[in-house]
Amino acid sequence: MNNKKIVIVGGVGGGASAAARARRLDEMAEITMFEKGPGISFSNCSLPYYLGGLIPDADSIILKTPEQFQKQYNIKAIVNSEVVDVDPLEKNVRVKNTVTGEITKTDYDELILSPGAKPIMPQSIKGIDKKNVFSVRNVVDIKNIQKYLTDNKVKSVAVIGGGFIGLEVCENLVQSGKKVSLIEANSHVLGTIDDDFAQIVQKNLYDNGVDLHLEDSLIEIFDDHIRLRSGIEVKANAVIMAIGVSPETELAEKIGCKLGVTGAIAVNQQYETSVPNVYAVGDAIEVTNRLTRKKTKLSLAFPAQMEARDAIDHIYKRPIENHGVIGSQVIHLFDLNVASTGLNENDCQKNGFDYRFVTVIPQNRVGIMPDTSPIYLKLIFSYPSGEILGAQALGKSGVDKQIDIVATMITMHGHISELTHLELCYSPWFSTAKNAVNVAALVAENILNGEYEQIPVTKVRQLIEKGAFIIDAREPDEYANGHIVTSKNIPLSQFRQRLAEIPTDQKVYIHCQSSQRSYNMVRALNNLGYTNIINISGSYLELCEYEYFKDQTTDRQAIVTNYL
Amino acid sequence: MNNKKIVIVGGVGGGASAAARARRLDEMAEITMFEKGPGISFSNCSLPYYLGGLIPDADSIILKTPEQFQKQYNIKAIVNSEVVDVDPLEKNVRVKNTVTGEITKTDYDELILSPGAKPIMPQSIKGIDKKNVFSVRNVVDIKNIQKYLTDNKVKSVAVIGGGFIGLEVCENLVQSGKKVSLIEANSHVLGTIDDDFAQIVQKNLYDNGVDLHLEDSLIEIFDDHIRLRSGIEVKANAVIMAIGVSPETELAEKIGCKLGVTGAIAVNQQYETSVPNVYAVGDAIEVTNRLTRKKTKLSLAFPAQMEARDAIDHIYKRPIENHGVIGSQVIHLFDLNVASTGLNENDCQKNGFDYRFVTVIPQNRVGIMPDTSPIYLKLIFSYPSGEILGAQALGKSGVDKQIDIVATMITMHGHISELTHLELCYSPWFSTAKNAVNVAALVAENILNGEYEQIPVTKVRQLIEKGAFIIDAREPDEYANGHIVTSKNIPLSQFRQRLAEIPTDQKVYIHCQSSQRSYNMVRALNNLGYTNIINISGSYLELCEYEYFKDQTTDRQAIVTNYL
């Protein structure tokens, strides 16, 4: 039998993983990996950190060179080589050397497409092709950006798009001393998290000097400024486009691979395309969301690596399972970390899922330890079945852990009740005795059981405007340091002696600092026969974060006294 | 109907949780909590941090005072009050005021015993009652220790017992400038982890100046030194006993509660003892290990809190489920964190479980980011069923996360194959694209599939002594910086040209830095038909850590050149 010939298109996450896996399964295979660009096997996700100087050497982002692939794995990794055509009947690829223009032909038995996704650069934006406009896809891009910024002594940069890449670029440019404007077309940054949590992220951007423009979009680019749809002109000597990516489907389409409903390459369970012996993996393919069971696109490194591994395993007749994706993500943004997994509220609504959510704000470790900080954790679950659907977390530390635990529960089809008793590591150094996820699940279980009513902080401004009766259950000294302007201070420690002050003929909303004391008061009042009591989930801590950014950017009257 | 009278014995983790839960379910209940000591609701786990100065105020460790319990929860929390007898027929408790000696009587409908566990102070040790001998159970204890150390200008302290408390006390005393000796009767510290990983912990202790005595025990205490079973005398002006705790069963036994096989109080699924209307929770009870299904004792905060909550729920006729415990734990020790969950090798052996394990050493985040550090992760799984049984992790950062993920998988009955594809958060700031647990599971799957053979670093010394053929697959510059004395350097990048140097008539053991390159070489050689190839799991990184401590404490010849 002849040695198997495996050709791989694309030499980054998916491609390099496929090549290495193939070699591990078959020492005799002839493995060739073609990469259009000048570098293979680089850490895309690390690219922004070069702009901030955290990674001082751009070339270090290339984790393995073609020489290393050759020597260590006996894999031909050929850069500056674009696969321009495929003959699926003759089973060969035509490869163009992007430097010399020379075309060569290589045979394959199995072809793996891992072309990735390219930054969207709408030609409708005037000036999009100007030399001060960049995207962040590879090492060449970030070197070009850095060189341009330095050569032209650029002080102001506009980042277009507030997704993960846009935010990471923002942070790194601010770290390197630039004045950064961020333009986001949606009503909030980070589509993976909900509006309430996005406000906290936006506060963080604001606090770090980022000039944020929401619900606005780029119309025209000039040398020293940009113009937005709103008419606003923003100073910017350079523009970085990060509004999203689009799967590289050109070659696949050309050779007859079917695309899916999302426009990405359609594959079956084994990552086979509709063309025999042609597989596709990574950002270019359409995947299935494990929770919604709908098709989706997902540009994340880990799924790409696993898809590549599984495609190769299938080639070598190993059974694989493809359970779809849940989309776990995390981003570091100044002193804030933002992580999420599974579905957010928007996803649930779009899919017609009946759901509930809880927000809790426990400390990242025992309060008496130094350097504690709150973890804002939102847990979303199906109603009334209690299946865990998603979570979002914000905080200075520990949020990736909480979200990874929820991601694991989601993957294992966990129920809220199982999360309440989940036995996790505890020491005062690392967490509270009940971890944040346990606390969230305990509250969620109360909601499932219908034990009490709650309302999120996003509704508080409306409550105030309607003249609702709001109780602040904190101690008087906490109240004195700042409170909701119309709230009445009845501390948990006094309410039993002050029941007469709590009306029974209208709804009563109770909050404290993090919802723990208000929760106890709500339960006590319910037990006493009150049927009009509602807990403000997220309480003062989240409210201040949530409203703070709005106060800075709108003329609406502040509702929290300490920000007046 | 009269208000329910709930009496709780013990005012720390379990007791305080039970009281607060009862109040939330029943505003009218008469809840009384008796605590023998002077403080309730303190964070036991935080006690050692006062000794090191991280928590400067010992009283801050008391999270809630009796006054706060009264005001916020309308709960009577009565300190310095020991419940000395119970009349289960008349349903009342007799309480002795430990200050005045006065005895009073309180009626109950439901009684919750949460007396905790007491430090073991063997009377067989001569001098155990001397005034320079302490234990660490409550705030009074640590104040006494601190006062004694200060008043007597103590410079040398002996800590007896290398479990969690002993190690935390060690660290904190070292931080406060003491010369610390640690005496451990077993062959290694921390019974929750295996010998191989314990060696790394011991290296850490050694590096931080702790004078460690293994397989030795305390015989006699003097004013300025102690004598060990081995005859060794160790300088110590104060002794802290941390050899373990024993459940407080005296009261329970007195009133007729049955004890279990472990000597702790026996309870049913609902935490009821054998005496009607008497519940028991926390460190004093016997629990069931979820994995071995055997009875055990477990002194951890989170299970105690959940048991208390569940007991109260049962009193209020709420259904509860009691799935047993897995024992997730974490400790901070100088710059090393040590976490574990589920079963270790020793547990598996004792229970006759067929198991395998893998050790991987990925970085805590992408290698090109600053401040990366290795995570030593050991994953234990049943063979051949692939059920995840336990994990241990060591490292400067991120180990609690990896272990919490495994703890979640164990709880959800996860299989190795599910862990391989578990989609966790990734950004270069937080982890590698494949998290450490994914890497471990991928290797574990290979072991399950019988893809290659491995041997742990614990066997390498033996291999060398027997003259085994060991290949170091790292690059020549790495080899030059230190290697196993008898190893031959055949880098992964050269072996295909040097096959002639690899024997076929004897076993060949291969290692690299972290097992990744050696793994690739093993696979390639297997594919080429070699049947004599064995990977050294853990490789050079773990070997150096493992053998380092031995070299410092034994006269055996060093096997790693850079420690000669």
Automatic annotation (TrEMBL), chains A, B:
UniProt cross-references to Gene3D superfamilies, sorted A to Z: FAD/NAD(P)-binding domain, Rhodanese-like domain
UniProt GO MF annotations: oxidoreductase activity
Any Pfam family: Pyr_redox_dim
Cofactor (UniProt): FAD
Keyword Chloroplast in annotation: no
Transmembrane segments: none
UniProt xrefs under SMART domains: RHOD
Domain Rhodanese: 464-545
PROSITE patterns in alphabetical order: RHODANESE_3
Superkingdom as given in the UniProt entry: Bacteria
Matching SUPFAM superfamilies: FAD/NAD(P)-binding domain (SSF51905), FAD/NAD-linked reductases, dimerisation (C-terminal) domain (SSF55424), Rhodanese/Cell cycle control phosphatase (SSF52821)
Keywords, sorted A to Z: FAD, Flavoprotein, Oxidation, Oxidoreductase, Redox-active center
Coiled coil: none
CDD domains recorded: RHOD (cd00158)
Family recorded in the similarity comment: Belongs to the class-III pyridine nucleotide-disulfide oxidoreductase family.
Protein name: Pyridine nucleotide-disulfide oxidoreductase
